[in-house]
Specification:
The complex is a heterodimer. Chain A is mostly helical. Chain A is about 75% helix and about 0% strand. Chain A contains 9 helices and no strands. Chain A is elongated, with a radius of gyration of 47 Å. Chain B is an all-alpha fold. Helices cover about 70% and strands about 0% of the residues of chain B. Chain B has 9 helices and no strands. The radius of gyration of chain B is 19 Å and the shape is globular. Chain B starts with a helix and ends with a helix. Classes of the chains: A mainly alpha, B mainly alpha. The interface between A and B is large, with 31 and 40 residues.
């Protein structure tokens, strides 16, 4: 037999649907254990309700004044907080722009370089190798070959 | 005709100060009483009940109107109370003055206590039993304790308690069943 133990309190506080209630009623009619459970819970609930501890009353005027003060302080903070993300976003965007501009500046060709200097800078790896190749005899005699051809 | 709590809350969302004051007047006692019942400390109850109204002011725009205003407001309040209790427990733990946060989990402790039997005709005995009963409520797990208080003190239905505690109705029934079974055992009525 399934005992509806967890439903008994809902049953006592009338929190069940009519169908659920009818089901519990039918079960209680045949189950002495559940009837005992129900009566035990009913007594505890009644005891709790009868003996609710009385909360010490605060001074309501003071309580309300404190609440207003707290709310006002919080409002001031909210007012400061709202423009802060906007200021932060603007600062971040400005920072990003500066970084992009600096990067672009570094990559851009320097206007003061002459055309010859630009060729040297561009072809520097090749020129560097030519220095090495000068040691070879063929390269050394290239000038002479050119004069012979002309003649 | 007086405007309903739900209408007032919508006005608070539009920053109507008078509507806020009316809601404060309507709910301040209930908020204070429930906070005190959960926290059992007047200073903390003062702090938390005020904070609940500040949150109400701040988040009134998020009240969708699907639940009753009271349920929505109790949810704010109970969450604040439970968070506060949790923080307090951690603080006590840090200073070595701790008690278990979920005393109900330690069923063996209560099982070892001799069950008290009391005669309702005896006033002194009864007073002691009632004190014992509420001392035992204090020892319940936070969710069980909140469920019991919302049930017996605020007279909320299990559905409303579920909405406040943000859990299913079945979970609330289990909370209440476990809590009352424990209290019954303590009172020697089982």
């Amino acid at each position: 037999m399934n005992h509806p133990t967890t439903e008994l309190i809902a049953y006592l506080t009338e929190a069940l649907s009519p169908d659920e209630r009818a089901g519990i009623d039918a079960h209680l009619a045949i189950c002495a254990d559940c009837r005992r459970e129900r009566d035990g819970f009913a007594t505890v609930l009644a005891d709790l309700r009868r003996s609710l501890p009385t909360a010490p009353e605060p001074h309501w005027g003071r309580w309300q004044a404190e609440l207003r003060g707290r709310l006002e302080a919080r409002r001031r903070r909210w007012r400061w907080r709202r423009p802060l993300p906007m200021a932060l976003s603007a600062a971040l965007a400005a920072g990003l722009l500066v970084i992009v501009w600096i990067g672009h500046e570094r990559q851009a060709p320097r206007p003061e370089l002459t055309a010859m200097e630009e060729v040297v800078v561009r072809e520097y790896p090749v020129l560097e190798r030519l220095d090495l190749l000068e040691d070879l005899e063929l390269i050394h005699d290239l000038d002479r070959l050119a004069t012979r051809g002309e003649g | 005709m007086e405007p309903s709590d739900e209408v007032l809350c919508q006005r608070v969302a539009a920053r109507d100060e008078a509507a806020f004051d009316t809601l404060v007047t309507r709910y301040q006692q209930r908020a204070w009483r429930l906070a005190w019942s959960i926290l059992r400390d007047a200073e903390e109850a003062r702090d938390i009940s005020q904070e609940a109204f500040v949150r109400l002011y701040q988040t009134a725009g998020s009240f969708a109107g699907r639940a009753r205003f009271s349920t929505w407001f109790y949810r704010i309040l109970v969450n604040l109370c439970l968070d506060h209790r949790r923080r307090r427990w951690w603080q006590r733990l840090a200073t070595n003055h701790h008690e278990p946060p979920d005393a109900a989990a330690d069923e063996s402790l209560i099982e070892r206590l001799p069950a008290e039997r009391y005669d309702p005709t005896d006033a002194m005995e009864r007073e002691r039993a009632v004190k014992h009963l509420w001392a035992e409520v204090e020892q319940l797990a936070p969710q069980q304790r909140a469920a019991v208080l919302l049930q017996v003190q605020e007279e909320l239905s299990t559905r409303e308690i579920a909405a406040v505690l943000q859990c299913s109705e079945a979970t609330v029934r289990v909370h209440l069943h476990r809590a009352l079974a424990r209290l019954r055992k303590t009172m020697g009525k089982g």
